[in-house]
């Protein structure tokens, strides 16, 4: 029996032994105990989270001396935001994690009121450096640097903050309360370092650009790297190179910013600028060109450079941070998923927030978008496996996938559409409102082609269920639009939970094969889905009350007129890794 189960049994025996009462009496202590049991069942099994308390932004991810490092915003005193420090964990494989001493915490005048988000840069000498936002005694947001106390320690347990901090302070033209989250620095062909800090002027988001020769003295450039009108504050900016198809390296490979010292490499990459929108609480990105001589970033014309732009994830995914992994020559993306239950729920659970599964991220062959996919190491957790092949699902039908415990699982499915002609007509006015479209045409609303997909974390009677599905619309006789949705509106009996639908359009030509693929990582209270090979990604938090543990089930459904066929469905139970045990 596990520790949690033993504690639960002891508690039950204790309360049962207190006294025999009339059956109609409501026992608050037993209701509380039931809530604790549900909270235990909702805790994720293989997503990153500490044993207890609040977490938010991933900070300073890097690879050093054979270990992956992840710092993250953490409240060591409770399950709500506050008292923020940089907690620190290490891993050999991005799956099993060990917690070590906090990396950064308030200790000097330049960060005495808080240590907020930042990034890590590995210098050409191999020395890792952390850049982070500190809150000084005047409540100004200033940028600071920290170095390892012992470079021979692969765990990087201790960090030193030089007394010459802050290295970047807001000048009079900058809003000192909106000036944060320095990026990983990059080294230009001219031998100067550069980084950006997120800021705003009124409703204009700004990536403020700084340069340095020695990583100590930083000078603000005369112009920003880039800016966006009507977007509000740009938090947690990320700026990095990506390989393009047809270059000297495979387009799926990552590019280290240190390689940009080579002018030849600098000419055959594009750049990604991602910003987190403080007002909207979601992110968008563009891909474009960076002029090293002029220090100007220009998005490609095909990318919307505003809050209607492409997103890494159309769900509960924020404050993301990427890093180059030199061990596997890839770029890895981390993102924070907040809770969507209530603050009292979080206090009762004793924890709040997780990190999404780390994703490999790269530019598509067409150059029109980024592709994301769970890092390959996740497959090491796969256990018991079931497979369904060539199973037709007619209009209004569904079937249960049996043989595994799906509450903690990895599901890959491929669907073939029999009759695209049944697709409903697409209104061009819907183009910038996928979420509103999914809310209007949710999984319960019958359609032409779709909704079809998965019901997961479903109770046996289907009164609780979360839907992940596709719906196809036609713009004319030859062109189609594919919508992907996560619909948690029936995920829980608990009425207080925030249960919005999340959705994004899938950039694909469905007419070529009439097939579409879906991978979904299910982990108790998180549903993380990747459509069409990672073209569209959606993460949702859900809090079922009945569909927990062994009572959580997996179904395939079709609520459209066109028949669909499950050409292949593979589902695996997922084992639980070591998750932030003390060193």
Automatic annotation (TrEMBL):
Top-level taxonomic group: Eukaryota
Record protein name field: Uncharacterized protein
């Amino acid at each position: 029996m596990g520790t949690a189960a033993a504690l639960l049994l002891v508690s039950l025996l204790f309360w049962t032994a207190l006294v025999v009462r009339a059956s109609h009496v409501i026992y608050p202590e037993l209701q509380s105990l039931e809530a604790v049991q549900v909270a235990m069942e909702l805790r994720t099994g293989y997503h990153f989270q500490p044993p207890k308390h609040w977490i938010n932004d991933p900070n300073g991810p890097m690879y050093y001396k054979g270990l992956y490092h992840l710092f993250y915003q953490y409240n060591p005193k409770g399950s709500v935001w506050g008292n923020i420090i940089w907690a620190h964990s290490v891993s050999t494989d991005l799956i099993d994690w060990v917690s070590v001493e906090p990396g950064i915490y308030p200790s000097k005048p330049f960060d005495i009121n808080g240590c907020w988000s930042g990034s890590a840069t590995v210098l050409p000498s191999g020395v890792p450096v952390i850049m982070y936002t500190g809150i000084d005694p005047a409540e100004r947001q200033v940028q600071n640097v920290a170095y390892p106390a012992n470079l021979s320690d692969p765990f990087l347990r201790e960090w030193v903050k030089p007394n010459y901090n802050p290295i970047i302070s807001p000048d009079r033209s900058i809003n000192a309360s909106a000036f944060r989250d320095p990026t990983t620095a990059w080294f230009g062909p001219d031998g100067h370092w550069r980084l950006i800090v997120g800021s705003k002027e009124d409703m204009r988001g700004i990536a403020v650009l700084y340069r340095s020769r020695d990583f100590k003295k930083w000078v603000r450039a005369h112009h920003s790297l880039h800016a966006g009108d009507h977007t509000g504050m740009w938090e947690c900016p990320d700026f990095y190179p990506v390989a393009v198809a047809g270059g000297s390296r495979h387009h799926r490979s990552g590019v280290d910013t240190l390689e940009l010292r080579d002018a030849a490499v600098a000419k055959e990459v594009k750049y990604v600028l991602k910003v987190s929108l403080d007002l909207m609480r979601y992110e968008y990105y563009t891909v474009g060109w960076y002029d090293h001589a002029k220090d100007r970033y220009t998005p490609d014309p095909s990318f919307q450079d505003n809050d209607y732009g492409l997103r890494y994830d159309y769900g509960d995914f924020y404050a993301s941070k990427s890093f180059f992994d030199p061990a596997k020559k890839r770029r890895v993306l981390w993102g924070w998923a907040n809770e969507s239950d209530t603050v009292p729920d979080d206090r009762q659970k004793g924890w709040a927030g997780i990190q999404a599964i780390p994703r490999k991220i790269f530019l598509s062959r067409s150059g029109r978008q980024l592709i994301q996919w769970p890092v390959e190491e996740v497959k090491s957790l796969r256990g018991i496996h079931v497979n369904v092949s060539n199973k037709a699902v007619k209009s209004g039908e569904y079937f249960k996938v049996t043989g595994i415990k799906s509450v903690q699982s990895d599901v890959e499915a491929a669907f073939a559409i029999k009759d695209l002609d049944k697709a409903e007509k697409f209104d061009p006015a819907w183009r910038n409102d996928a979420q509103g479209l999914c809310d209007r045409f949710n999984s319960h609303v019958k359609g032409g082609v779709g909704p079809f997909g998965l019901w997961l974390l479903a109770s046996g009677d289907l009164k609780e269920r979360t839907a992940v599905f596709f719906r196809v619309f036609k713009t004319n006789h030859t062109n189609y639009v594919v919508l992907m949705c996560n619909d948690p509106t029936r995920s829980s009996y608990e009425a207080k939970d925030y249960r919005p639908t999340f959705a994004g359009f899938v950039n694909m030509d469905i007419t070529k094969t009439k097939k579409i693929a879906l991978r979904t990582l299910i982990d108790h209270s998180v549903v993380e889905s990747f459509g069409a090979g990672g073209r569209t990604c959606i993460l949702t938090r859900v809090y079922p009350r009945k569909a927990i543990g062994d009572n959580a089930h997996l179904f395939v459904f079709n609520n459209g007129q066109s028949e669909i066929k499950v050409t292949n469905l593979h589902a695996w139970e997922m084992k639980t890794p070591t998750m932030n045990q003390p060193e």
